[in-house]
Amino acid sequence: MSAEISPQDRELIEEYCHYLQYEMNRSAHTIRSYRSDLTGLASDLQKRAAEQDELLPVFRVATLEDFRAWLAQLTQHGMSRTTMARKTTAIRQFMGWLVRQGIREDNPAARLITSKQTSHLPDTLSQKQVRQALDALYEAVRGESGDPSDPLALRDVAMFEVLYSTGIRVAEIEGLDIEDIDFSRSVVKVTGKGDKQRIVPLTAPAVRALEQWLSAGRAKVLGDKPQTPAVFLGARGRRIGARQIREVVNEVLRRLGDTSASGVHVLRHTAATHLLDGGADLRSVQELLGHESLQTTQLYTHVSIDRLRQGYQQAHPRA
Fold first, then answer.
1. CA dihedral 159, 160, 164, 169 (to 10 degrees)
2. Which of 71, 138, 172, 238 could form an S-S bond across to 168 if both were Cys, CB 3.0 to 4.6 Å?
3. Is 232 helix (H, G, I), strand (E, B) or coil?
4. Domains plus CATH for the chain?
5. pTM higher than 0.85 for the full model?
6. What HAMAP family is this protein classified in (predicted)?
């Protein structure tokens, strides 16, 4: 069981999260992660001072050695490098904020070094696998009678088509409202990280799937429940959550049987890779995905090159 945290430390964490939300415009996911990281750190530091009769405000006295010892312990427990890098950043930025607030005179975490992350090419689906996944979804829509009778099947087709069409993130499709869709121009307005908005084009199949879901499926799911602007709904008629979206996509991917790929992000990676395979400009893909750095988008060029190399080695007589 985690040790308790002093009221002073808990208040500092909440004030910092408020700062992240309203001044830094950080995403809800980032704020949850940082809150969890800092709470875990405070809990561990408090546990080490368990001989004290009262809870101490540990963040006011924590040292660089304290932070290094905590991170080393997490590493020994098998924490991934990506997670370790995030926790290191959370500590360093939080302690810097304490200094700016006049709560501490020094930032001992300024010398913390972020672990180097290993380069990992993202999992993607082949065009054949995407077609197989969509064929299965459309088959579920038609059902035994050949008529679209299951509204949730219509929703699942539309979600998958939109995710593959646009490469948007799970939080972005979760937050889509009906007014964000411009059917006349076949585009959708997406609100990404930091509440930054961008316009993303929709493929013709994605537009058709959305139209069918909105005209024939959504009203059935909503029933007489309170109205909502959300495009995609859960079975109870409320805005669908990220967890439900992941479950739908993961089930589709599991049914493919010939891939280890999982998660909604696979469709984001796949959309980017297929666009680059088809000759799309790197800057255009960057804008489509909402990447701040072109370096992030360039990762997908390595996937495309790997595919080219594999095809070359299979096809060229002297490869």
1. 50
2. 172
3. coil
4. 7-111 (1.10.150.130), 127-261 (1.10.443.10)
5. no
6. Recomb_XerC_XerD
